[in-house]
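Margin note from the TA: students keep mixing up input and output lines. Inputs are the sequences; the output is the structure of the whole complex. Example:
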Amino acid sequence: METLLAVDSLSVSFPVGNDWVPVVRDVSLSVGAGELVGLVGESGSGKSMTALAILRLIPDPGRITGGRILLSGEDLLGLADAGMRSVRGARIGMIFQEPMTALNPVFTVGFQIIEAVRVHRRISRREAQLEAERLLDLVAIPAARQRLKDYPHQLSGGQRQRVMIAIALASKPDLLIADEPTTALDVTIQAQVLELLEQLRQDLGLAVLLITHDLAVVAETCARVIVMYAGQVVEEAPVETLFSAPAHPYTRGLLAAAPGLGRPGARGELATIPGQVPEMARLPTGCAFHPRCGEVMEVCAQENPDVYPLSSEHRARCFLHGLPASRSEAS
Amino acid sequence: MTALLEVRDLRKYYPVRRGLLQRVTGHVKALDGVSLEITRGECFALVGESGSGKTTFGRCVLRLEEPTAGIVRFQGEDLLALPPAELRQRRRHFQIVFQDPYGSLNPRMRVHSILSEPLEVHNTVPETERAERVEELLTLVGLTKDAGRRFPHEFSGGQRQRIGIARALAPEPSLLVADEPVSALDVSVRAQIINLLVDLQDRFGLTMIFIAHDLAVVEQTADRVGVMYLGRIVELGATRDIFAAPQHPYTVSLLSAVPVADPTRRRDRILLAGEPPSPLSPPPGCPFHPRCPIARDRCREEEPALTESADGRQVACHYPGELEPVGVGLSAGGTF
């Protein structure tokens, strides 16, 4: 598979007082053309910030402090703002968790889709209108022509998310970044939207980077998963491998702590990960997960582990799978 | 076993006003005739999607909101008939934990004051023993005693939810309504809070109404489940039975829609068409018929009544059990 997006050692920091606090730390990941990749983590893990950095949408005063972002081989960080504007929307589309806040409440849905179509393509209003109808058909909104006249508040949450997807697809992007697209939706509607994303991937060859906190959503939709914790990638694997042989203690804990349908354990005996996600400004020394880790070793508090390969497709940032730098140099 | 709470034909209609004169043009029927009994000591879960009326039910039962009609009997006494002063006295027996641990704690009060306020209001603990009782409560929910000196913003979401639970338990209630208590929390913290609630329930013999949209959590915690759709109960029964063999097509589809954390079991699922209709203008006949995969003419005309079968299961459907559960009832495996 051809690599569409390659993020290499990306770092993002925010100023706090006189210090710069890193929120994305040395993140590397890739998305192949037409591939559906899951980026999983809890709040504060840096998953959304990574997505925003790819689109150069980091809110002020945050800064990208290092790394490279390659889209089809072209370094996005080297582009001027104008060049970046033609990447956003045109080559990478994005949808967010809450579609109501992303849509403009005072314009009709049709107006907003037509606007998105005409920003990137020189076509007449009439053609854009037809294109908008086609897009609503594509995202399976019934009676597309009538819906174009609706305002966002007249649509349900699921339909709004479909409209957002239609807008994101207006310029025929190669990659769609979907940040928690179904978190605000009910399960029956979530199932519809996930089905739609998979359909678009198959029909249009669209690559999708799906950002979510829900491992079950990943299991059902993605081919490959990247797990983040405290701003770092801690594990990456094909989806079957991650669920059958998770290598990082954090991933194992997450899988055990999320109750799944059809495997009820004894009442009140859900596995838990003790403690809580650390604040980025006060990260523990060594491995950021070590204070919560059940398999902690002495070295874990002293050094931050590298990402070690378990196979050609499976990597984990944990000393269970590789020697610390200090020792491997000595030997 | 006796019923601690008995609810009969509970209704809550919100008037919809339109136009210059703000005339009432219709009603949103958030609760449209809900009847159920909750046994002392059980954990009863109410599930449904947003707009199904599950939160309204919790609020109406506690009279945080005035129901339009119906009967709520708590320990045999009709709560809806009580004058406000007496209702306030009864309130110590039924408490609520809210969904949002950020919005439900006063940011200007120290945790100590948050927890001693219910003790003062209900006067269950003499003033001299209140500080000690607050420390006890903090320990009970897994916080350190010095947490009392701090403000809510100094805590994480999970810790705040622990404070919310401690506050609800302060007046030693017999009924606890937990309204989506873990929905706002991170996955790794959710399990901690669920375990805490279950543990406290067992220790104090609490009766719990657990309102949730996360079916996996419900399967782990509840003895019985009621499934709501458009302000009505469509299916009710023992958790094990409902998850193993759902009878109502809505329950079947709901279970089928829940993603399963096992990539080797990607399965066909029943994909419901459309979305829940507006409670402002519910469809005639069965409220689920526009989305139901097995709807027939009768469903469009005649509303099915909630009927009880021999095993105590209640289902409101003309053709219960006819929709084959696809991708449901995965209890066979589940290993990782």
